[in-house]
Amino acid sequence: MKLLFKKPSLFTFFLTGIVIISGYLFAVTKSDPNPEKITSTTAPKKIKMEDAEWKKKLNPEQYRILRKAGTERAFGEVYKEFKKQGEGKYVCAGCDTELFSSNEKFDSKCGWPSFYDPSNAKNVVTSVDYLLGYARTEVLCAVCDGHLGHVFSGEGFDTPTDQRYCINGTVLKFVPGTLKKKGEGNAGKITPPEK
Q1: Is the model's pLDDT at 6 over the cut of 70?
Q2: Which residues of 49-72 are buried (b: 16+ CB within 10 A; e: fewer)?
Q3: Model confidence at 133, in pLDDT bands (50, 70, 90)?
Q4: What whole-number distance in Å separates Cα of residue 190 and Cα of residue 179?
Q5: Are strands 136-141 and 124-129 parallel, antiparallel or unpaired?
Q6: Which of 44, 107, 158, 168 has the fewest CB atoms within 10 Å, i.e. is most exposed?
Q7: CB within 8 A of 122, min separation 6: which ones?
Q8: In sequence order, what are the beta bridge partners of 138?
Q9: Which domains does the chain have, with CATH numbers?
Q10: Do the beta carbons of residue 89 and residue 101 sit within 8 Å?
Q11: Is the pTM of this model over 0.85?
């Protein structure tokens, strides 16, 4: 009796596994009815303004940092204020887009506000800059393309990501309120303080 099939190769098993996993991932993403999850991957709508409009909207220090990639002085008044702020979220001074929250805030003792992760990842983008002659990862607002600061990895901080988003506090507006912690329903949603 002749064999109808050859012995399957390792490549065949590998290819079959990829097909099965791909099919499973496609089915899971297609059947997920959670609209919040689906919309969280959509890119936010960009806003564009002329330079004169930015100068009118922002104070001179915010303009210098947000629009011209400046940096505020380390350990300044803005940093001291940041350390005192309690629960709430941090929005972009240029467009009011939520960027970070007190859930991800930590004291890195570097002289600038620090977060280990954005509160809303789709609202923050990164780009490599060489302004100091070497590569640094610049952090930008995804909505207005404003310069926020830089992100550094692998510094050994005891945080879930071991990243330090080193952000200029001048370009953040603090909105106080009670936040739900990650793992709770609607995590990161803010409840305004009672008046």
Answers
A1: no
A2: eeeeebeebbeebbbbbbbebeeb
A3: confident
A4: 5
A5: antiparallel
A6: 158
A7: 40, 41, 42, 43, 44, 142
A8: 127, 150
A9: 51-177 (2.170.150.20)
A10: yes
A11: no
